[in-house]
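Risk mitigation, structural track. In case the binding assays with zinc ion fail to produce interpretable data, a predicted complex structure has been prepared as a fallback.
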Amino acid sequence: MDNFAGGTAVPETEPDAAEPEVSSKPLPVAELHLHIEGTLQPELIFALAERNGITLPYSGLDELRARYEFTDLQSFLDLYYANMAVLQTEQDFADMTRAYLERAAAAGVRHAEIMMDPQAHTSRGIPLETCVNGVASVLATSQEEFGISTLLIAAFLRDLSEESALEVFDGLMAMNAPIAAVGLDSAEVGNPPSKFERLYAKAREAGLRLTAHAGEEGPPSYIVEALDILGVERIDHGIRCMEDPDLVERLVDARIPLTVCPLSNVRLRAVDTLADHPLPAMLAAGLNVSVNSDDPAYFGGYVDDNFSQLDAVFELSDFDKARLAANSIHSSFASEERKSELLAELNGLEAPQ
Ligand SMILES: [Zn+2]
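Fallback model:
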């Protein structure tokens, strides 16, 4: 990474700008922790509501935006699920996905592993095929259209039963859904990974990759459970590992990827301010961390915003920025060929053309 010294500048964007402008080229990264439903921008919520004849409980954009002050994970989830009511047709899911990819391309994302929550849609009467096909139809041509290779992760809601997850999983298998991995998200505390042992065993048997949210609001023991009981390859969030030195050592030794989402952690009060975020300590400990946007429409920014705000607070070195970008690529479920391409793009940024 020596060729990064004095390298490309991460673009400066105004914190909390509604529509940040990307003025210079950001680092090529893989986004590994992104919920497609969390990319639903207020403008699109209103547009889809109008198209589908749905009356929203907000008088306008300002009133909706005012609700984006969250006190914890649950207060966010309440709004997040309520807004999903506007997603009715395949076209709605496709439009949402297209809007994310367009914005992500400007943020430097070259590979994206996109989670969707099928249960959040089937539970309100939307057929599995509608949500899966709507998202997948756009992902199928994402590399040609946006320069972003993609894969789809079916994420399961941990506050629902394992039976519900298994039912939806079987539905995904029956329709031959183009999913590459399974994940576990939603309200963490009180819903430990061990609750989903059978689901993950089935997913592994089906040849799928495995990831799970753990150690965001939940304790470090949930990270241990995700590794030992679910057999995950990657941990989403994982920031509370820092409370357990033995676990940190294990994660470092095994190079377990942690998909960290700094702006999300601030908005959901996992940390008080960005200056209190453990990311620099995690890097210093040798943990395999990457920077991701989680639910960017709700948390104040996309991957480039996360990088620029981290940089504003911590003055990240070029080496660390490049390391974070390289970690994201290495930690992805992309093919070795695609990883090599992306690493070459990252390493070659300063090479004369
Ligand atoms: Zn998440």
